[in-house]
Write a structure and sequence with these properties.
143 residues; mainly alpha; 4 helices; 63% helix
């Protein structure tokens, strides 16, 4: 084991070798026996950090607070679930209506080659029908 790896293990798991991963514990203890001065310096530094961290305690919330939070969450979840169901249904209805409208508009269009009342559709310019015999000038006027 390298000195760098020993320092990484001690930094990650603390100065107590019982907290180190079993797969590397034996190698780390062998390093400690082979280089006691170097290992001891690392372990002392990490032991000081372990002691400082052990001084900090975090108190948990009281049972009353936990109950109120959980009750609020269940009410909020119920309301959110209702809104999600409503909005999902609304979205599905809008999508369905759009699909029906698109389908109807496609079916209403004449298909290529279809004849309507025996004649083809004619183009109009400014609302006036253009006969096939009329010419259209570049300015849009018929001649």
């Amino acid at each position: 084991m390298t000195p760098e790896r020993f320092a990484v293990l001690a930094g990650a798991y603390g100065a107590d070798p019982d907290r180190w991963p079993e797969a590397e514990r034996e190698q780390a203890l062998a390093f400690q026996r082979a280089r006691p001065d170097q290992a001891q310096a690392v372990l002392e530094r990490e032991a000081a950090l372990d002691a400082a961290l052990a001084c900090w305690t975090v108190s948990g919330p009281g049972a009353d607070l936990s109950g109120r939070v959980m009750a609020g969450l269940s009410r909020g979840r119920s309301l959110r679930l209702r809104w999600r169901v409503f909005l999902s249904g609304l979205g599905a209805a809008v999508t369905l209506a759009g699909g029906v409208a698109a389908g109807i508009s496609v079916l209403a269009l004449p298909q290529a080659g279809d004849q309507v009342s025996g004649a083809l559709y004619s183009l109009t310019v400014l609302g006036e029908p253009i006969d096939d015999a009329d010419e259209v000038a570049p300015d849009g006027q018929t001649r």
